[in-house]
Write a structure and sequence with these properties.
The chain has 86 residues and is an alpha+beta fold. It is built from two helices and five strands, in the order E-E-H-E-E-E-H. The longest helix is centred in the C-terminal third of the chain and has 11 residues.
Length: 86
C-alpha cells in the first residue's frame, strides 16, 4: 500500500531497492500518477523506517525548507542536515 504526499514525500510498504519502490509507487491511485524524476528514489536515496520506505521530493518549492526543518526537529540526532542554496 502506498501513501502519497506530493508536498514532501511518498512512501510504500517496506522495500529495500529502488526498483521495488518505483513499482509500488506507480501502483498508487493518484490523479497525477507517479513520476520518479520528481523524487529522490534511486538506490541509496530511500529512507526505511517503521516498515515503510520513503522518498523525498526533489521539487524544492517555497514550503520545502520549512517542511524539512520540521522533520529534522521531529527526528533529532540522526546525522541529517540540509542547507538551502540559491
Amino acid at each position: 500500500m502506498a501513501n502519497h504526499n506530493m508536498d514532501v514525500s511518498i512512501s510504500v510498504d517496506s522495500c529495500d531497492a529502488a526498483a521495488g519502490f518505483k513499482w509500488g509507487s506507480a501502483q498508487m491511485p493518484t490523479g497525477r500518477g507517479f513520476d520518479p524524476s520528481r523524487f529522490s528514489c534511486d538506490d541509496g536515496e530511500l529512507i526505511l523506517a517503521n516498515g515503510r520506505t520513503y522518498a523525498v521530493s526533489n521539487q524544492w518549492g517555497g514550503r520545502m525548507p520549512a517542511s524539512v526543518e520540521a522533520l529534522l526537529t521531529a527526528f533529532p540526532g540522526k546525522g541529517i542536515s540540509f542547507r538551502p542554496v540559491s
